[in-house]
Amino acid sequence: MLNIFNIKCAFRIKWPPTPTQMLHCVHNILMIGPPGSGKTMLAKRIPTIMPDLNLREALEVTKVHSVMGTLPVKDGVIGIRPFRSPHHTISDVALAGGGTIPRPGEISLSHRGVLFLDELPEFHRNCRQPLEDGSIRISRAAKSFVFPASFMLVCAMNPSPFMTHTSQITPAILWPNYDHFTLKFF
């Protein structure tokens, strides 16, 4: 069963659309399905069907990775969209950024790319502000730092073993950011 909400496409697609066709016109995705149904495989392929980075976007991505020290030595500018998939046990600082000397977290490292949160209910709920603003602000006593955070949020989760049908999912219980998903697979 496939439920689609708020899809706004600039082109016509045949019904029912393939997952690839749907990914071309959405911003954030929530996939709910049993283990082995292909949620992670589909998520990992999303950057390959996204448009190529233009020079401005490539420089933005390169700057973030340069600050973190993750810029590959052989490459001058990162030309591919990032795909970040942190483990659900990640700390808030590692996800959002921060520390004694503030550094970008996984959210900023996925800037202009994909942030994939597998096992969504296991994650803390601190992605709302970056999704709304496209940036993340880390404040310290002496100074505030703003890191870029314009990313596609892709989430996956298994249905609850207590549910007999996926229509029993309650969005408020699922995740407070549920309203930020433009496409939901069930």
Which terms summarize this structure?
186 residues; alpha/beta; six-stranded mixed β-sheet; disordered N terminus
Secondary structure: elements and pairs:
Blueprint: E1 2-3, H1 19-23, E2 29-32, H2 39-49, H3 55-68, E3 83-84, H4 92-96, E4 97-98, E5 103-104, H5 106-109, E6 114-118, H6 128-133, E7 135-139, E8 144-148, E9 152-157, H7 171-174, E10 183-185
Task: Describe the 3D structure.
With 186 residues, the chain is α/β, with parallel strands linked by helices. The protein contains seven helices and ten strands. It has helices at 19-23, 39-49, 55-68, 92-96, 106-109, 128-133, 171-174; strands at residues 2-3, 29-32, 83-84, 97-98, 103-104, 114-118, 135-139, 144-148, 152-157, 183-185. The protein has a six-stranded mixed sheet. A two-stranded antiparallel ribbon has the order 4-5. A hairpin with a 4-residue loop joins strand 7 (135-139) and strand 8. The protein is globular, with a radius of gyration of 17 Å. The termini are close together. The model is unreliable at 1-15 and 166-177 (pLDDT under 50).
